[in-house]
Amino acid sequence: MRILLIKMSSMGDIFHTFPAISDIKQHYPDAEIDWVVEDSFSEIVDWHPGVHKVIPINLRRWVKTRSKKHWQEFKDWRNSVRNTTYDYIIDVQGLLKSAIVAKCAKGHGIDGYAKTSAREPVTHWFYKRQHIVDKDQHAVERTRQLVGKALGYTPTPKLNFGINQNFVQVAKNPRKLIFIIGTSWVTKLWATGEWQALTKIAIDAGFSVEIIWGSPEEQAIADQIIEFCPQATRPEHRLSITTIAEKLVEAAGVIGLDTGFSHLAGALETPTIALYGATSPVKVGLIGEHTQNLQITEKLECMPCHKRHCKWLPENSTDTPACMSGIKAEAVWHALQQKLLAHPYNN
Protein backbone atom coordinates (compact mmCIF):
# COMPACT_ATOMS: atom_id res chain seq x y z
CA MET A 1 0.00 0.00 0.00
CA ARG A 2 1.41 3.37 -1.04
CA ILE A 3 0.14 6.42 0.87
CA LEU A 4 0.83 10.11 0.29
CA LEU A 5 0.19 12.58 3.12
CA ILE A 6 -0.04 16.33 2.54
CA LYS A 7 0.93 18.40 5.60
CA MET A 8 3.33 21.14 4.60
CA SER A 9 3.60 23.30 7.72
CA SER A 10 3.94 24.58 10.40
CA MET A 11 6.46 23.01 12.79
CA GLY A 12 3.92 22.31 15.52
CA ASP A 13 1.42 20.94 12.98
CA ILE A 14 4.04 18.52 11.70
CA PHE A 15 4.66 17.17 15.18
CA HIS A 16 0.89 16.80 15.57
CA THR A 17 0.89 14.50 12.54
CA PHE A 18 3.46 12.03 13.87
CA PRO A 19 0.98 9.94 15.91
CA ALA A 20 -1.07 9.32 12.75
CA ILE A 21 2.07 7.91 11.08
CA SER A 22 2.57 5.59 14.06
CA ASP A 23 -1.08 4.51 13.79
CA ILE A 24 -0.71 3.64 10.11
CA LYS A 25 2.37 1.51 10.73
CA GLN A 26 0.63 -0.22 13.64
CA HIS A 27 -2.28 -1.29 11.42
CA TYR A 28 -0.41 -1.64 8.12
CA PRO A 29 3.25 -2.46 8.88
CA ASP A 30 4.13 -2.80 5.19
CA ALA A 31 2.61 0.53 4.14
CA GLU A 32 4.95 2.93 2.33
CA ILE A 33 4.19 6.47 3.50
CA ASP A 34 5.43 9.48 1.55
CA TRP A 35 4.96 12.99 2.97
CA VAL A 36 4.83 16.36 1.17
CA VAL A 37 6.26 19.05 3.47
CA GLU A 38 7.81 22.49 3.15
CA ASP A 39 11.53 22.12 2.48
CA SER A 40 12.48 23.93 5.70
CA PHE A 41 10.76 21.19 7.74
CA SER A 42 11.93 18.13 5.78
CA GLU A 43 14.60 17.43 8.39
CA ILE A 44 11.88 16.94 11.02
CA VAL A 45 9.66 14.64 8.96
CA ASP A 46 12.61 12.35 8.30
CA TRP A 47 12.86 11.62 12.04
CA HIS A 48 9.86 9.30 11.95
CA PRO A 49 10.90 5.76 10.92
CA GLY A 50 7.46 5.18 9.41
CA VAL A 51 8.05 7.74 6.67
CA HIS A 52 9.28 6.06 3.49
CA LYS A 53 10.06 9.22 1.52
CA VAL A 54 10.09 12.91 2.33
CA ILE A 55 8.94 15.06 -0.61
CA PRO A 56 10.09 18.66 -0.03
CA ILE A 57 8.13 21.51 -1.57
CA ASN A 58 8.95 25.24 -1.72
CA LEU A 59 5.35 26.42 -2.00
CA ARG A 60 5.83 29.43 0.28
CA ARG A 61 8.66 30.77 -1.87
CA TRP A 62 6.86 30.02 -5.14
CA VAL A 63 3.67 31.78 -4.02
CA LYS A 64 5.54 34.76 -2.58
CA THR A 65 7.61 35.56 -5.68
CA ARG A 66 5.51 34.11 -8.52
CA SER A 67 8.34 34.42 -11.01
CA LYS A 68 8.64 32.51 -14.26
CA LYS A 69 11.56 30.59 -12.81
CA HIS A 70 9.58 29.49 -9.76
CA TRP A 71 6.58 28.56 -11.90
CA GLN A 72 8.86 26.23 -13.83
CA GLU A 73 10.20 24.82 -10.53
CA PHE A 74 6.64 24.07 -9.48
CA LYS A 75 5.85 22.30 -12.76
CA ASP A 76 9.03 20.23 -12.46
CA TRP A 77 8.06 19.34 -8.88
CA ARG A 78 4.54 18.33 -10.00
CA ASN A 79 5.90 16.13 -12.78
CA SER A 80 8.26 14.45 -10.33
CA VAL A 81 5.46 13.68 -7.87
CA ARG A 82 3.34 12.18 -10.64
CA ASN A 83 5.99 9.53 -11.30
CA THR A 84 4.42 7.54 -8.46
CA THR A 85 0.84 6.24 -8.33
CA TYR A 86 -0.61 6.19 -4.82
CA ASP A 87 -3.31 3.96 -3.40
CA TYR A 88 -4.30 6.76 -1.01
CA ILE A 89 -3.65 10.51 -1.11
CA ILE A 90 -4.71 12.13 2.16
CA ASP A 91 -4.82 15.89 2.69
CA VAL A 92 -4.41 16.11 6.46
CA GLN A 93 -3.88 19.88 6.37
CA GLY A 94 -7.36 20.75 5.10
CA LEU A 95 -6.45 24.06 3.47
CA LEU A 96 -7.00 25.24 -0.09
CA LYS A 97 -3.27 25.28 -0.76
CA SER A 98 -2.81 21.71 0.50
CA ALA A 99 -5.82 20.48 -1.49
CA ILE A 100 -4.34 21.99 -4.65
CA VAL A 101 -1.01 20.29 -3.92
CA ALA A 102 -2.82 16.99 -3.34
CA LYS A 103 -4.42 17.32 -6.80
CA CYS A 104 -0.92 17.36 -8.29
CA ALA A 105 -0.33 13.75 -7.24
CA LYS A 106 -1.48 10.68 -9.17
CA GLY A 107 -3.66 8.11 -7.44
CA HIS A 108 -7.15 6.81 -6.83
CA GLY A 109 -8.64 10.06 -5.55
CA ILE A 110 -8.01 12.23 -2.51
CA ASP A 111 -9.27 11.71 1.04
CA GLY A 112 -9.92 14.78 3.15
CA TYR A 113 -12.20 16.50 5.63
CA ALA A 114 -15.89 16.90 4.87
CA LYS A 115 -17.20 20.43 4.29
CA THR A 116 -18.39 20.73 7.90
CA SER A 117 -15.07 19.45 9.26
CA ALA A 118 -12.47 21.32 7.20
CA ARG A 119 -10.67 24.49 8.29
CA GLU A 120 -11.38 25.86 4.80
CA PRO A 121 -14.67 24.29 3.63
CA VAL A 122 -13.98 24.94 -0.07
CA THR A 123 -11.44 22.12 0.03
CA HIS A 124 -14.14 19.43 0.02
CA TRP A 125 -14.60 19.96 -3.74
CA PHE A 126 -11.11 18.53 -4.27
CA TYR A 127 -11.76 15.25 -2.46
CA LYS A 128 -13.15 12.00 -3.83
CA ARG A 129 -13.81 10.74 -0.28
CA GLN A 130 -14.86 13.19 2.44
CA HIS A 131 -14.78 12.30 6.12
CA ILE A 132 -16.65 13.90 9.00
CA VAL A 133 -14.32 14.58 11.93
CA ASP A 134 -15.40 16.59 14.98
CA LYS A 135 -13.82 20.06 14.81
CA ASP A 136 -13.95 20.48 18.59
CA GLN A 137 -11.00 18.18 19.20
CA HIS A 138 -7.27 18.56 19.50
CA ALA A 139 -5.47 18.70 16.14
CA VAL A 140 -3.62 15.46 16.94
CA GLU A 141 -6.86 13.54 17.36
CA ARG A 142 -8.47 15.14 14.29
CA THR A 143 -5.55 14.03 12.15
CA ARG A 144 -5.53 10.53 13.62
CA GLN A 145 -9.25 10.14 13.02
CA LEU A 146 -9.13 11.46 9.47
CA VAL A 147 -6.35 9.05 8.53
CA GLY A 148 -8.10 6.19 10.34
CA LYS A 149 -11.36 6.83 8.47
CA ALA A 150 -9.51 7.04 5.16
CA LEU A 151 -7.69 3.75 5.73
CA GLY A 152 -10.45 1.87 7.58
CA TYR A 153 -9.29 1.57 11.18
CA THR A 154 -10.01 3.17 14.56
CA PRO A 155 -6.98 4.70 16.34
CA THR A 156 -6.18 3.37 19.80
CA PRO A 157 -6.36 5.83 22.73
CA LYS A 158 -2.59 5.77 23.38
CA LEU A 159 -0.49 8.36 21.56
CA ASN A 160 2.82 7.43 19.99
CA PHE A 161 4.79 10.26 18.39
CA GLY A 162 7.35 7.69 17.30
CA ILE A 163 10.52 9.81 17.18
CA ASN A 164 12.27 9.11 20.48
CA GLN A 165 14.38 6.31 19.01
CA ASN A 166 16.31 8.92 17.04
CA PHE A 167 17.78 10.26 20.27
CA VAL A 168 18.51 7.14 22.35
CA GLN A 169 22.20 8.13 22.39
CA VAL A 170 21.39 11.28 24.42
CA ALA A 171 21.82 10.84 28.18
CA LYS A 172 19.24 12.44 30.46
CA ASN A 173 20.51 15.16 32.82
CA PRO A 174 18.10 15.20 35.80
CA ARG A 175 19.29 18.66 36.91
CA LYS A 176 19.09 20.53 33.62
CA LEU A 177 16.24 22.73 32.37
CA ILE A 178 15.68 24.27 28.96
CA PHE A 179 13.85 27.58 28.57
CA ILE A 180 12.38 28.43 25.14
CA ILE A 181 11.94 32.20 25.25
CA GLY A 182 11.08 33.01 21.63
CA THR A 183 7.98 32.80 19.47
CA SER A 184 6.66 34.31 16.25
CA TRP A 185 4.21 36.85 17.75
CA VAL A 186 4.90 39.67 20.19
CA THR A 187 1.59 38.86 21.93
CA LYS A 188 2.87 35.37 22.76
CA LEU A 189 6.00 36.59 24.54
CA TRP A 190 6.44 36.41 28.31
CA ALA A 191 7.92 39.32 30.28
CA THR A 192 11.71 39.25 30.55
CA GLY A 193 11.37 40.03 34.27
CA GLU A 194 9.37 36.83 34.79
CA TRP A 195 11.96 34.80 32.87
CA GLN A 196 14.61 36.30 35.12
CA ALA A 197 12.63 35.45 38.25
CA LEU A 198 12.01 31.90 37.04
CA THR A 199 15.68 31.40 36.18
CA LYS A 200 16.71 32.48 39.68
CA ILE A 201 14.20 30.10 41.27
CA ALA A 202 15.50 27.22 39.18
CA ILE A 203 19.17 27.93 39.86
CA ASP A 204 18.55 28.39 43.59
CA ALA A 205 16.85 24.95 43.51
CA GLY A 206 20.02 23.36 42.14
CA PHE A 207 19.16 23.19 38.43
CA SER A 208 21.18 24.44 35.51
CA VAL A 209 19.32 26.53 32.94
CA GLU A 210 20.06 26.79 29.23
CA ILE A 211 18.14 29.37 27.18
CA ILE A 212 17.34 28.56 23.57
CA TRP A 213 17.20 31.47 21.12
CA GLY A 214 16.69 31.77 17.36
CA SER A 215 16.86 35.46 16.44
CA PRO A 216 18.88 38.55 17.44
CA GLU A 217 15.90 39.78 19.47
CA GLU A 218 15.69 36.50 21.36
CA GLN A 219 19.44 36.49 21.88
CA ALA A 220 19.15 39.93 23.48
CA ILE A 221 16.46 38.66 25.87
CA ALA A 222 18.63 35.67 26.74
CA ASP A 223 21.51 38.00 27.53
CA GLN A 224 19.30 40.06 29.82
CA ILE A 225 18.32 36.92 31.71
CA ILE A 226 21.96 35.83 31.98
CA GLU A 227 22.98 39.29 33.17
CA PHE A 228 20.44 38.87 35.98
CA CYS A 229 21.45 35.23 36.63
CA PRO A 230 25.05 34.69 35.46
CA GLN A 231 24.83 30.93 36.15
CA ALA A 232 22.39 30.53 33.27
CA THR A 233 23.77 29.84 29.78
CA ARG A 234 22.77 30.10 26.13
CA PRO A 235 24.22 28.58 22.94
CA GLU A 236 26.84 30.78 21.33
CA HIS A 237 25.26 30.36 17.90
CA ARG A 238 21.82 29.58 16.53
CA LEU A 239 21.29 25.82 16.65
CA SER A 240 19.89 23.38 14.10
CA ILE A 241 16.52 21.77 14.79
CA THR A 242 18.19 18.41 15.42
CA THR A 243 20.66 19.88 17.92
CA ILE A 244 17.81 21.59 19.78
CA ALA A 245 15.94 18.28 19.85
CA GLU A 246 18.95 16.61 21.47
CA LYS A 247 19.03 19.30 24.15
CA LEU A 248 15.29 18.85 24.79
CA VAL A 249 15.79 15.11 25.23
CA GLU A 250 18.70 15.69 27.60
CA ALA A 251 16.73 18.08 29.81
CA ALA A 252 14.77 17.07 32.88
CA GLY A 253 12.14 19.64 31.98
CA VAL A 254 11.29 22.39 29.51
CA ILE A 255 9.43 25.68 29.85
CA GLY A 256 8.42 27.42 26.65
CA LEU A 257 5.86 29.52 24.85
CA ASP A 258 3.36 28.81 22.07
CA THR A 259 6.00 27.79 19.56
CA GLY A 260 7.08 24.76 17.56
CA PHE A 261 9.97 23.86 19.87
CA SER A 262 7.62 23.54 22.85
CA HIS A 263 5.58 21.09 20.76
CA LEU A 264 8.80 19.27 19.94
CA ALA A 265 9.64 18.94 23.63
CA GLY A 266 6.20 17.46 24.22
CA ALA A 267 6.58 15.05 21.28
CA LEU A 268 9.90 13.90 22.76
CA GLU A 269 8.08 13.19 26.04
CA THR A 270 10.13 15.60 28.12
CA PRO A 271 8.04 17.18 30.92
CA THR A 272 7.06 20.53 29.39
CA ILE A 273 5.11 23.59 30.50
CA ALA A 274 3.89 25.87 27.70
CA LEU A 275 2.56 29.37 28.43
CA TYR A 276 -0.51 30.61 26.56
CA GLY A 277 -2.27 33.96 26.43
CA ALA A 278 -3.35 35.42 23.09
CA THR A 279 -3.78 31.95 21.59
CA SER A 280 -5.80 28.99 22.81
CA PRO A 281 -4.20 25.64 23.68
CA VAL A 282 -7.51 23.74 23.48
CA LYS A 283 -7.12 22.47 19.91
CA VAL A 284 -3.44 23.03 19.17
CA GLY A 285 -1.71 23.06 22.56
CA LEU A 286 0.72 20.51 23.94
CA ILE A 287 -0.81 17.08 24.45
CA GLY A 288 0.11 14.20 26.77
CA GLU A 289 0.30 13.58 30.52
CA HIS A 290 3.85 14.91 30.69
CA THR A 291 2.78 18.35 29.41
CA GLN A 292 0.73 21.26 30.71
CA ASN A 293 -0.62 24.31 28.89
CA LEU A 294 -0.56 27.12 31.46
CA GLN A 295 -2.70 30.27 31.37
CA ILE A 296 -3.68 32.95 33.87
CA THR A 297 -6.14 31.69 36.49
CA GLU A 298 -8.90 34.16 35.66
CA LYS A 299 -9.10 34.54 31.89
CA LEU A 300 -9.70 37.97 30.40
CA GLU A 301 -12.77 38.60 28.25
CA CYS A 302 -10.56 39.17 25.20
CA MET A 303 -8.85 35.76 25.50
CA PRO A 304 -8.02 34.22 23.16
CA CYS A 305 -7.79 37.04 20.63
CA HIS A 306 -5.47 35.21 18.21
CA LYS A 307 -3.99 38.58 17.28
CA ARG A 308 -0.37 39.49 16.63
CA HIS A 309 -0.90 42.86 18.35
CA CYS A 310 -2.72 43.52 21.62
CA LYS A 311 -5.54 46.05 21.20
CA TRP A 312 -4.95 47.31 24.74
CA LEU A 313 -1.35 48.34 24.00
CA PRO A 314 -0.06 51.18 21.80
CA GLU A 315 0.66 50.32 18.18
CA ASN A 316 4.10 48.69 17.71
CA SER A 317 4.43 48.21 21.47
CA THR A 318 6.70 45.39 22.64
CA ASP A 319 5.21 45.35 26.14
CA THR A 320 3.82 42.08 27.47
CA PRO A 321 0.02 41.81 27.15
CA ALA A 322 -1.97 41.34 30.35
CA CYS A 323 -2.89 37.78 29.34
CA MET A 324 0.81 36.85 29.55
CA SER A 325 2.07 39.24 32.25
CA GLY A 326 -0.51 37.72 34.59
CA ILE A 327 1.38 34.41 34.50
CA LYS A 328 3.88 34.50 37.37
CA ALA A 329 7.19 32.71 37.70
CA GLU A 330 6.18 30.99 40.94
CA ALA A 331 3.12 29.42 39.29
CA VAL A 332 5.18 28.19 36.35
CA TRP A 333 7.76 26.69 38.68
CA HIS A 334 5.08 24.91 40.69
CA ALA A 335 3.57 23.44 37.53
CA LEU A 336 6.96 22.17 36.36
CA GLN A 337 7.70 20.58 39.73
CA GLN A 338 4.42 18.67 39.55
CA LYS A 339 5.37 17.27 36.14
CA LEU A 340 8.89 16.36 37.25
CA LEU A 341 7.53 14.48 40.26
CA ALA A 342 5.16 12.54 38.01
CA HIS A 343 8.08 11.20 35.94
CA PRO A 344 10.41 9.16 38.15
CA TYR A 345 13.12 8.84 35.48
CA ASN A 346 13.80 12.55 36.01
CA ASN A 347 14.36 12.22 39.73
UniProtKB/TrEMBL annotation:
Superkingdom assignment: Bacteria
Record keyword Transferase present: yes
UniProt KW RNA-binding keyword: no
Keywords linked to the UniProt accession: Cell inner membrane, Cell membrane, Glycosyltransferase, Lipopolysaccharide biosynthesis, Membrane, Transferase
EC number(s) recorded for this UniProt protein: 2.4.99.23
Molecular function in Gene Ontology: glycosyltransferase activity
Record's catalysed reaction(s): an alpha-Kdo-(2->4)-alpha-Kdo-(2->6)-lipid A + ADP-L-glycero-beta-D-manno-heptose = an L-alpha-D-Hep-(1->5)-[alpha-Kdo-(2->4)]-alpha-Kdo-(2->6)-lipid A + ADP + H(+)
Signal peptide: none
Cellular localization per UniProt: Cell inner membrane
Gene3D superfamilies in alphabetical order: Glycogen Phosphorylase B (3.40.50.2000)
Pathway annotation from the record: Bacterial outer membrane biogenesis; LPS core biosynthesis
Topological category with respect to the lipid bilayer: Peripheral membrane protein
Family listed: Belongs to the glycosyltransferase 9 family.
PANTHER family linked: LIPOPOLYSACCHARIDE HEPTOSYLTRANSFERASE 1, TETRAACYLDISACCHARIDE 4'-KINASE-RELATED
Designated name of the protein: Lipopolysaccharide heptosyltransferase 1
